[in-house]
Amino acid sequence: MPAFPTAARAALGDTQLRRNLAHATHTIRDKRAKVVAEVEDWEDLRLAGAGVKEAALRDLATHLETLEASLVRAGATVHWARDAEEACAIVARVAHDHGADEVVKVKSMATAEIGLNEALEAEGIAAWETDLAELIVQLGEDLPSHILVPAIHRNRAEVREIFLRRMAAVGRPAPADLTDEPAVLAGAAREHLREKFLRAKVGVSGANFAVADTGTLVVVESEGNGRMCLTLPDVLVSVVGIEKVVATWSDLDPMLRLLPRSSTGERMNPYTSTWSGVTPGDGPQEVHVVLLDNGRTRALADDVGRQALRCIRCSACLNVCPVYERVGGHAYGSVYPGPIGAILNPLLRGVSDEQTASLPYASSLCGACFEVCPVRIDIPSVLVDQRAAVVDSHRGDRVPKAEAVAMRAAAWAFSDARRLAWAEKASGLGGRVLRRFGRTSLPGGRAAAGRLPGPGAAWTGARDLPAPPEESFRAWWDRTDGGRHEGEGPE
Amino acid sequence: MRVVRVALQVTCVNDAMFPDTGKAVVRLLRRLGVDVDFPSAQTCCAQPMVNTGYLDEAVPVVRTFVDAFAGYDAIVTPSGSCAGSARHQHAIVAERSGDAGLAAAVAKTAPRTHELTEFLVDVLGVTDVGAYFPHRVTYHPTCHSLRMLGVGDRPRRLLEAVRGLELVDLPQAEECCGFGGTFAVKNADTSVAMGADKARHVRDTGAEVLVAGDNSCLMHVGGMLSRQRAGVRVLHLAEVLASTEDGAA
Q: How far is the alpha carbon of A443 from chain B, nearest alpha carbon, in Å?
């Protein structure tokens, strides 16, 4: 995966993508704003939500031990997975133990994060996504580009084409008279999925929350397909990030109020499923819970970044992010795109590779993400802190980057006003040259630089640059005693 | 509290590129009876370093800032971004430096740093500053003034009180223009895509002048409007507020 600026450039050239994204993000953004405005104590609710997650993280080890004990008591088998490889191996082993060559899946970020479908495929096990959008992505042999709406980058005509082209190869074909009406498309998906639900022996899920004291896992969804996967197969494997734990059942209260309004813009989500281990004669008779680290303890150890583990994957930050809106999710090179992905990926994986190191810079720091985050993750502050981590990781370089040289020079000039005054004088001279040779002027008459070569090109490719004035403010203040002796022009 | 000593933090961008904004602040504050000083030891708020991740490099710059403004009751800056930096980022830089003296100095200057509209409305208690600006204007609330500082409707109230000024709403006003400091260069393509949409919204208003409280954002959007030959001028809010019948910006 290329670094963000390169991937973004490619995405920006896709006009259909830009159009789909702008439409979808604005629709969901407006919907969210409306339902959030209905809640009088929204800010208190945000504080409560942040508090629940923060408290759980502060004492994570204890809560996880409680969770494990509760789950075991309820008849579940608990596994601990340090990384993606371990987690995938556990799921594959459970499937193999039951002679299953396929599993049905509830939409889950954790399983996407660990690349479970690909790992199972390598073991000869087909993993069927049952969430409508995940199905579209899977059939389209595509990558998800949004946390909540993985196929946000596709319009309905594209979805129709994917269904017609691919459904037959993996199960029940799409009806030949398929139109691009949303209800017709959903109907085709339902028929296609039904046979898979009824046939599958093993279901795989994640969890939105894991309640420590009761040993309850929670999935919040809109379509009901998740509930089918959670109740129909004989065996259920749930892959749960360790940061999903909350201490008590009552902690779910603020979370279940914050999540639907923030994510889908609904007052309440249509399906909330909870399961605790095994209930004889009802639902899966064998339940495995894989508690996944995969970089989470690494993030937990980061004083500033730790708050990213509060994330409840609502994707409100994606929908308001002006960067995400223009480039889409693929440019982030991860199942976690947008502002949260820009901090979560480096926190989980470190900043040693160029792609991950480019993510903290994939933001204009406008702060819209922090404003909408239901658990008050101060994403802009974490972005800046992760930028510092990137810079610090290069402090030992034998040859410093041009940027580092420039920043050190700027800091040197900014550390002493006399040096700055000197630099401004030089820039004023530059301005004089520009005024003589500049090919353009700004509205109002000020001289400006048109297209510049070299490093200036990144700015002037699409923007005129005002020529520096002959006299800086500082020089004007000195010359006129702060405007008290305004007289002749400079020099 | 009576504000006795008021300092102008002109900002490095205004100092070097937009001195007229600084002059407008001086003119405006004098008109309102404030004898504003310009401590010449000032340089920059250190935001370019902090926001790019060069926190160690920011330390001497923050030190220069707090030294230059020590002893003032209020520090006024015509930039939401730089005020935000002083109020929220200096403490981070000071803490990282491990210099307790610097942290203490920051704790003194940070709360005394006011963005211009905050100073006018909250400290001086005025919304009608006696300005005259007979133009059709649209206002872009820059991200840091809007979200980092929360200046709210203060700029709007000030603009609405300007005689002759026709204020028209900017569609999707609260969306970032795409400047973002070094973001404009490090992610130039995305920055330009965001700026193009902002420029389109500005053109849609039919305004003659785009006004904002941060010249860096205006430099970005204005540079784009200029390249498009859109015929829309950009102007800092301070220059609009300083305008009178005798001296229009």
A: 5
Nearest to B231 among A361, A407, A443 (CB): A443
Query: Quick one: DSSP state of residue A271?
Result: E
Length of chain B: 249
Token pair listed for A66: 């409680």
- In the numeric block, the tokens 């040693």 are attached to A352
Six token digits for residue A64: 């996880």
**Chain A environment of B148 (Cβ under 8 Å):** 367, 380
DSSP string, A433-450: HHHHH--EE-TTS-EEE-
The dihedral built from the CA positions of residue B176, B182, B184 and B190, taken in this order, carries a sign that is: negative
SS3 A384: helix
The token duo for A119 is 């790992």
- What is the separation of C-alpha A6 from the centre of its chain, rounded to a whole number of angstroms? 18
B185: nearest CB among A323, A459, A472 = A459
Token pair of B218 as six digits: 């205006």
Cα distance between residue A383 and residue B181, in whole Å: 14
Q: Do A407 and B48 touch (CB under 8 A)?
A: yes
Q: Which element (helix H / strand E) includes A178?
A: none
In the predicted model, is pLDDT for residue A439 greater than 70? no
φ, ψ (nearest 5 deg) of residue A215: 65, 45
Say which amino acid occupies B245. E
Of the candidates A14, A298, A281, A314, the one whose C-alpha atom is nearest the C-alpha of residue A155 is A14
Residue with tokens 């609330």: B141
**DSSP H or E run through B211:** strand B209-212
* Tens-digit pLDDT profile for residues A47-80: 999 999 999 999 999 999 999 999 999 999 999 9
Return the DSSP state at A361.
Answer: G
pTM for this model (two decimals):
0.95
pLDDT band at A203 (very low <50, low <70, confident <90, very high): very high
In chain B, residues with a C-beta closer than 8 Å to the C-beta of A455 are 185
Q: Tens digits of per-residue pLDDT, A391-421?
A: 999 999 999 999 999 999 999 999 999 999 9
Q: How many other β-carbons are positioned within 10 Å of the β-carbon of residue B88?
A: 17
CA A401, CA A391: separation in Å to the nearest integer?
10
CB contact under 8 A, A366 and B186: no
Cβ burial B23-57 (10 Å sphere, 16+ → b, else e): bbbbbbbeeeebebebbeebbbbbbbbbbbbbbbb
- The alpha carbons of chain B give a radius of gyration, in whole angstroms, of 18
pLDDT, one tens digit per residue, over A280-330 is: 999 999 999 999 999 999 999 999 999 999 999 999 999 999 999 999 999
DSSP B110: G
- Residue A139's nearest CA partner among A115, A165, A121, A118 is A165
Which of helix, strand or coil describes residue A48? helix
Task: Tell me the C-alpha distance between A19 and A479, whole Å.
Answer: 53
**What whole-number distance in Å separates Cα of residue A21 and Cα of residue A14?**
11
Contact B50, B58 (CB under 8 A): yes
Nearest by CB to A322, which of B22, B23, B178? B178
CA-based nearest residue to A181, from A204, A208, A159? A159
For A401, the token pair is 């980057």
A468 CB within 8 Å of a chain B CB: yes
User: In this prediction, does ipTM exceed 0.85?
Assistant: yes
Residue A311 and residue A382: Cα distance in Å, rounded?
13
Please report the sign of the dihedral spanned by the C-alpha atoms of residue B146, residue B148, residue B152, residue B156. negative
* Structure confidence at residue A488 as a pLDDT band (50, 70, 90): low
> What is the CB neighbour count within 10 angstroms for residue B204?
13
Q: pLDDT (tens digit, 9 = 90+) per residue, A69-124?
A: 999 999 999 999 999 999 999 999 999 999 999 999 999 999 999 999 999 999 99
- Phi-psi domain of A115 (left: phi exceeds 0; alpha: psi -120 through 50; beta: other): left
